[in-house]
Amino acid sequence: MPACLKKIFSGEVPTSSLVAFRILWGLILALSILRFITKGWVTSLYLEPEFFFSYWGFSWVKPWNQAWMLYTHFGILFLAALGIATGFYYRLSSLVFFIGFTMVELWDKSNYLNHYYFISLMSFLLCWLPLNRAYSLDIAWRKTKAWQTFPKLVLRSIQFQIGLVYFFAGVAKLGPDWLLQGQPLKIWLSTRTDTPILGFLFSYPQTALAMSWLGALFDLSVVFFLLWKKTRGLTYLALLFFHLLTYKLFNIGVFPWVMMVATLVFFDPDWPRRLFSTILTKIKLQSTGQKDLIPAKAWMTENTVMENIRVTKSNDKKLGNYFTLFFCFYFTLQFLFPLRHHFYGGNVLWHEQGFRFSWRVMLMEKTGVVDFILKDPKTKRQWQVSAKDYLKPHQYRQMVTQADMILEMAHYLKNLWLAKGFEDIQVYAYSKVSLNGRPNQTLIDPQVNLAQEKEGLYQKTWIKPWQEASFF
């Protein structure tokens, strides 16, 4: 390994920062699951709909069809998140949460969110990372061997996963809609003019354009400034402002809180120890009036906290050789996967082939309508069908602008008619979609019988090309 890379990835780091990450990450996952349950989303999203949109290759992953089974599933996720936070059966908890949460994500394509994907990836990564080797119930109750340090590669893997999200989110913003038109921020901010203090600014189109540029620069640079010690503090304050502002202005769920917690891993690996040392020192000074205390660097050492627990350094060489191979393969895949839309050409915001799982965050505002025409070639009868009769409102809003979901809906309608006794049914879609405030365009070729088309990774020629594709 070259010397520069060896300095970055080799060696060991104090445990406290990664332990803090494990605790905070597990707690925010637990709170997110609890929020999902208390808001009634388990029922409205996974029990009430009669149809669910599947991901290609995962049509066999379906929601539980009984309320008690669904709530048991989310209850297990809640307990697994607490297991991660406390380090209790940590490996099992991480694996259960990863599988269970990813199942939820796969249940219905209409509920896709980038931060759900990020949570799945980070949960998968945690299955491999020994974050229970310090300050965990596994050590206290299950006699797991404690470590004084973690391999630096453990820290770098988490930082790299977070960095990919910001980097590709920034790269995705380097397009004319975002940089030249300020879209879709111009559309969204125009509905937020009643926001206290800043609201009056949102009526000016220049505000949307300025925020678009700042957003792109922020995503592209934030990780590098967090890695640089001299700019880390101010950068994190900017990050807090950025995510709190987006949380206030836009409906993006827990994503801002997830990232505010996750990015703490960019601080010095012993920051929690020094923080608590400072706090306890001030408390003791105020309560006792003492001037000379135990030095901060000696506060809460492994020997004082784990007096009766066997402590050892991690086996850096063994873990490093094993994990380096995984690290290289996993993150090479993570780096290449968001680029797959280039194989399809055209405007990815329009056809959305390769759009999902690519960190293309907040790039478009799409609205549309679609009607399905079903024809019986034998009797020449035909029916105009609205998908609103079969979908929940949130499903319909997603379906009308996404070609693969329109195709899946067409097949669902075909199967309904076949179940009524018809021998053959043709399905045609008449769709109009607006992208980022532009006039409507036809999304699906109305001359193509969607009942004969199949889902897959191939180029979907039945999607009408975007008229301004040369600008993207």
In short:
With 472 residues, the protein is α+β, with helices and mostly antiparallel strands. Helix content is 53%, strand content 8%. The protein has a four-stranded antiparallel β-sheet. Strands 1-3 form a two-stranded antiparallel sheet.
Please provide a written account of the structure.
The structure is a single chain. The relative contact order is 0.11. The chain is of the alpha+beta class and 472 residues long. Helix content is 53%, strand content 8%. The chain is built from 19 helices and eight strands.
**Which term fits the overall shape?**
globular
Mean pLDDT: 89
Structural class: alpha+beta
Portion in helices: 40-55%
How would you sum up the major sheet?
A: 4 strands, antiparallel
Any low-confidence stretches, pLDDT <50, length ≥5? 292-311
The secondary-structure element order is HEHHHHHHEEHHHHHHHHEHHEEHHEE
Indicate the proportion of strand residues. 5-15%
- Total E-strand runs: 8
Main sheet: strand order:
6-5-7-8
Radius of gyration: 26 Å
Name some characteristics of this structure.
four-stranded antiparallel β-sheet, 472 residues, 19 helices, 2 domains, 8% strand, globular
Mind sketching the topology for me?
Elements: H1 3-9, E1 12-14, H2 16-38, H3 41-46, H4 67-86, H5 90-107, H6 114-128, H7 137-142, E2 146-147, E3 149-151, H8 152-172, H9 176-179, H10 185-189, H11 205-227, H12 229-249, H13 255-262, H14 271-288, H15 302-305, E4 311-312, H16 316-336, H17 348-351, E5 366-375, E6 382-385, H18 393-399, H19 403-419, E7 426-435, E8 441-442
Parallel strand pairs: 2-4
Antiparallel strand pairs: 1-3, 5-6, 5-7, 7-8
